[in-house]
Hints:
Keywords: Pyridoxal phosphate. It comes from Corynebacterium marambiense. The chain has 232 residues and is of the alpha/beta class. It has one domain (3-228): Alanine racemase (TIM Barrel). The protein has nine helices and eight strands. The mean pLDDT is 96.
Amino acid sequence: MTRSEDLARRLTSVRAAIHSAARDSGRDPEEIRLLPVTKFHPASDIGILRDLGIDAVGENRVQDAVEKATLFPDVAVHLIGQIQTNKANAACRVAAAVHSLDSCRLAEALDRGTSLAIDRGQRSDEPLPVLIQFSFDGDPNRGGVPESGIDELLDTVSGCSNLLLSGVMCVPPVGSEPAQVFAAAADLRDRLVSAEKRQMELSAGMSRDLREAVAAGSTIVRVGTAILGPRG
């Protein structure tokens, strides 16, 4: 089996799982976007996925996002991993969205980086969509902002003219109950909808907990292993 055939088979299976989970939850499958996570896989896989109808992928590391976005400018790259502030400028040159905003310092760095990229003609003059990464357990060693820090971060983002608040992202801590984590993140997303009076994304769910995420209201599921196979 060729790599193209393998990815096509896996992609079909994941799409079917999303449709099944949506139907079981009484949701329209069209409300849910699939974001294949290509981290640690060769850039050539993005070309194959593009030919299979994928127009956006997720990357963890800024340097990999830059490489892959340069090779495949017609595929949007979403940054889903932690971003060091000293890499914010590079991130803003290529990111279609950032799912892992978790500090005021990073928000300010992304705001400056987006402004710089716009001034240099490296991206359009549209604000950079950002999602707040919600930390369910508040563990400082993991990415995400705890409930106690949400309001301060939202205040900072509101003052960043080059950022567009677009929703909430979460990753269930090891040993946690995914449904409980997704429900808490969905509540935060709903609060943002009420405050901003517009739609917000919920980026939640991976290969192992896709069904629970869809049931909780996820609008973006980030699937790596089930589509790309084991990491290289």
